[in-house]
Amino acid sequence: MSLKFINPASLGSPRGYSNGVMTEPGMRLLFIAGQLGWNEHQEITSADFVEQFDRALANVVAVVTEAGGRPEQIARLVMYVNNKKEYEARTREIGERYRTHMGKHFPAMVLVEVKSLLDAEAKVEIEAIAAL
Q1: Strands across the sheet with 74-81, in order?
Q2: Is the overall model pTM greater than 0.85, yes or no?
Q3: How far is CA 99 from CA 76, 102, 114, in A?
Q4: Which domains does the chain have, with CATH numbers?
Q5: How far apart are CA 130 and CA 74, in angstroms?
Q6: Least C-beta-crowded within 10 Å: which of 52, 100, 125, 126?
Q7: Is the pLDDT of residue 17 over 90?
Q8: Can you say how many angstroms the Cα of residue 115 is from the centroid of all Cα atoms in its chain?
């Protein structure tokens, strides 16, 4: 089973995401709660934005793996950041960390700037949906 990526020509070529992702019949959906850049003790591991992004995405992938899936089965990512300008300024580093966990797999994605996150030290939170 695989995901089908939907990218209408009328929307232009997406960069680093897909406009739509369709699952095949019989796939199970896994809803991954928002993951912060924290460790098994639920402690933020670094004050650095990119480090937090890296750890939060690793945590998402850990949930998918625990359910028997693979990163390329992630159909949607929602990324919450508390500073969009910092995200934009560090896009190259974020992209490198992203590819470490996801390779060249680009699901449907959204970036949302928020005032704050669950942990006062958190700068990034990532939630996901995977099709297994």
Answers
A1: 29-36, 124-131, 74-81, 108-113
A2: yes
A3: 16, 5, 24
A4: 4-131 (3.30.1330.40)
A5: 4
A6: 100
A7: no
A8: 19
